[in-house]
Amino acid sequence: MQHHVSKRRFAMGLSSLDKIIALQRNPANIRNLCILAHVDHGKTTLADCLVATNGIISSRLAGKLRYLDSREDEQIRGITMKSSAISLHYRNGDQEYLLNLIDSPGHVDFSSEVSTAVRLCDGAIVVVDAVEGVCPQTQAVLRQAWLENIRPVLVINKIDRLIVELKLTSQEAYAHLQKILEQVNAVTGTLFTSKVLKERAEEDEEEEEKKKDSKTLSGDQVYDWSARLEEADDSQLYFSPDQGNVVFASATDGWGFSIQQFAQIYSQKMGIKAEVLLKTLWGDFYLNAKAKKIMKGAQAKGKKQLFVQLVLDNIWSLYDAVVTRRDKEKVEKVVTSLGVKLLARDLRHSDPKVLLSAICSQWLPVSQAVLLMVCEKLPSPLEIAAARVEKLMSVGARRFDSLPEQTQELKRAFLQCSSGANDPLIVFVSKMFAVDTKALPQNRQRPLTHEEMAQRRDLARQRHADKHTALWNKSAVQVLSIYYSISLSGQMESLTLKDSKPEEEEEHQTFIAFARVFSGVAKKGQRVFVLGPKYDPAQALSMLPEGVSASGCVSEVPHLSCCTMESLYLLMGRELEELEEVPVGNVLGIGGLEVSVLKSATLSTSPACPPFIPLNFEATPIVRVAIEPKHPSEMPKLVRGMRLLNQADPCAEVLIQETGEHVLVTAGEVHLQRCLDDLRDRFAKIEISASKPIIPFRETVVRPPKVDMVNEDLGKQHKIAIIHQVKEGRSSATLHVDSGGLVTLTTPNRLATVSIRAMPLPQVTSLLERSAELIRTLEQINMSLREGKSLDISHRTLEAIIGLKTQLEILLQGRKWRNAVDRVWAFGPRRIGPNILLNSVEGYQRPSVWQCLGRVVKAGEAGAQVIRDLDNSIVSGFQLATLAGPMCEEPLMGVCFSVEKWDIQSPASKVEGSSETLEEGATAGPIQARRRPEAASADCYGPVSGQLIAAMKEACRHAFQAQPQRLMVAMYTCEIMATADVLGRVYGVLGKREGRVLHEEMKEGTDMFIIKAVLPVAESFGFADEFRKKTSGLASPQLVFSHWEVISSDPYWVPTTEEEYLHFGEKADSANQSLKYMNAVRRRKGLYVEEKIVEHAEKQRTLGKNK
Ligand SMILES: Nc1nc2c(ncn2[C@@H]2O[C@H](COP(=O)(O)OP(=O)(O)OP(=O)(O)O)[C@@H](O)[C@H]2O)c(=O)[nH]1
Ligand SMILES: [Mg+2]
């Protein structure tokens, strides 16, 4: 197969490469597009058909080869694992097009690869399986296309399955196809309305702001929210066959069509205008044969729709003749009527599918239909929308129009897609991928051109002659042997040309950047700026001299570096072709960036260019394993390998834990497997062993339970007993825990005291989690405010912050939470996490995290809003406490720590001596501390700030332990499609793994059930495999991280009532799932595990005997 491929490739010849280079200069005829779909819906198969049109693979193998699945494991598993690009040439009439086609994976584990693909494209082919319809990943990819503002077209694939597998009639198939279209359009519709409403809201605000500025506020205005929806033009938006953005296809059988093609065919045959047919071929129209007219209302009159009669019936009868009945005569008839020419061997072939695809690929070649649609319906790079440009270039929370002028000017270059000599180069690198250094074109063995061959021959002859004369005097035997060796090496040389590289280097991997030119021309050897994600053009422009170029030294500017684009490549699937330069609007590969670019980056010749917004990743990496080399001495190789892997994968994370373990974090099981394979075979090239997946947990507290483990009501007595336990065990000289769970802790030097209470956060946890990015922005803004800088915050960001605050206010209701939102001191861990630090200190009017919302401080209050000294220590202590909880050192989630008292005394008052001053200091403390901070820090226990951090952390931990503690587990959702007969087994597998079925429904038009379920990540390993085995090879379910869930059982629970003893026995650890999880984590981390392995062994045995 491989051989076949390479032979064809060379047959493609250089003229074709020249053609592509020429086409690269005409952006109007370039289409950058990716193929997106749910897993297994036929992307790669469809790509095969398109690739075959360029003769890169033979059309007979198209649909079977899956050429773009170049990795061995992709071929074996039958799924795509990376996005890869290929450039194709297509001629439509007198127009010639260059298509940069990117195939993407559909498996959810690799959805980050989809993100890298859509960023580089202007359009997308969305493929939907005609049987399975819209699946979770279909929705996900449609959303991604929207987020990147790229235009989609639709291919409904595998229509043959409707005929052969589901055995639908043509009429039923029509209804089924209609439903699929509706489903897809419903997804688009939701995306569209939400976007329009959002834009509308933004515009309104801007208007309002303008009004405010000009002080012409004119009374109340009532907005009609639905008005804009109706105004907005959405006709281009939806998929509809008469719009020409839908192709019906069967990629394996090689056919596909849009209704344009049939409109053309029948307008000639029937003498009806093509435009009329185009409007009526899809829809409720029928043909009145007598009147020779097309009429409306086919369904009501019980007539066949035009689409069924003129299109589907033809295909159905072809399948009937060729596949079902194998009727030779009928086949011949059809063949002649279609004007198709067949080879004898196809006619004789035992597999009817061969004959079928031979006929179909001539009659309705899928590549023609798809390529035509792509060229007509997808935008060229010239049509890039202003909105997309602004979105790509928006720096953090800034407004576009607050960016430096030079930066705003870049937008013009961007929109015009200009490639003049003076236009700045802007390139976006969306991922780095590794190739064998050997496989690079400059190192590849290639056939020589005729001239080179002749030159070599002359050279060899010359050298040979020289040597010959020089050796004339030597003995005959010697001469002969030398002659022999020379001529031999001459021969070898004349056959192949290869840059010699040292042996070791050949083993290496070279990183190529997967990129697109958004403005200007990329030239080989050019120096460019590499703009890190945090690079700020405004800051850089003020630091750099005017007109600086990337060849100068810019080391002092933060997040800016320079590099050379050492080589440029045309991406041709499995191969690369070297290029000298690549003009705007093209997808390309760039060599020589591996030192300067980790995963993605923006490159430019202008320092005014902002870094593009980061890629939108849908998947959260969640599966972690610790990795070790089999032989400890190979550690350096492993470290190097993991570094390379980190660079080569957009979503994998590599980190070293405090314990020294090397940890790999991946999106799921399949992704993990691929990463391990890559590490073993390509990057580290050593034997490795991976630990069992490390499952993440979260620790939280809950309200005290109302019933015990056997559902008996818990009396007040019992609650007090629990709290008493806590108190007894933990109180000491510096620590005091009261019965309400308020923990008071004093620093070792007895100068500072904090009182803290932990409370479960109601409902807001998931909101905080979702808003992590926003909170990070908020934190950054606060930071700059504290430093006294002012920021021009964009409207959208402000709006989002206000939204978050309002939502929190709505969710945090009740007496306990009065004014809580205004008192939020910090979020944690890492300042963005889903836990809250609350300021309940009486008399401490600290500005809250919302200070950027600029509620003007009234003159009188201004003095009160001062941040106390050592405020930061409290926050740091909180951050540490939330990063690792007391249960098993996992991060906390959904916990609120309320600081109720915070006193600091100056050492002076301590000299006076007794414990009463501590109480007195409670009111005087803050002021004193503010006055004399330097005195407070001079102490034999070290700086107060450090002590306070430790005390704060400890206090939080104790406060946490004073509440009922619980573990939280990560949950996956999965959607499973199953036929009725395996349904029982599906439930069995789910039940065994603690899964929960959310809902189950019948898929319309099929006998399949769709089951939506959740199951803990901790129980998910091997799930897909078990599933396949138990249900004999159903499509494997896709596990997507969904949310965190509290396990209801208490890990510290011991039976206290008689009923509980009876029910669970004395040890009571049989049913305690969360204790099992907690101990497993503690054991892994080398923490103390309280466990009695065998207890009273003798006794138990006698007991058993007696029974
Ligand atoms: N019956 C039928 N099968 C098809 C058709 N197109 C693709 N297939 C089959 O569907 C399976 C998946 O095809 P792929 O092209 O690998 O699907 P994919 O979308 O690239 O899958 P991922 O890249 O893993 O997401 C293969 O076994 C194909 O042979 C079709 O038109 N009809
Ligand atoms: Mg694929």
Automatic annotation (TrEMBL):
Residues 28-382 form the Tr-type G domain. The keyword Amino-acid biosynthesis does not apply. CDD domains: aeEF2_snRNP_like_IV (cd01681), eEF2_snRNP_like_C (cd04096), EF2 (cd01885), EF2_II (cd16268), EF2_snRNP_III (cd16261). PROSITE patterns: G_TR_2 (PS51722). One of its GO terms (cellular component) is ribonucleoprotein complex. Pfam families: EFG_C, EFG_III, EFL1, GTP_EFTU. The keyword Hydrolase applies. SMART domains: EFG_C. Keywords: GTP-binding, Hydrolase, Nucleotide-binding, Ribosome biogenesis. NCBIfam families: small_GTP. This is Elongation factor-like 1. It comes from Cyclopterus lumpus. The lineage of its organism: Eukaryota, Metazoa, Chordata, Craniata, Vertebrata. The gene is efl1.
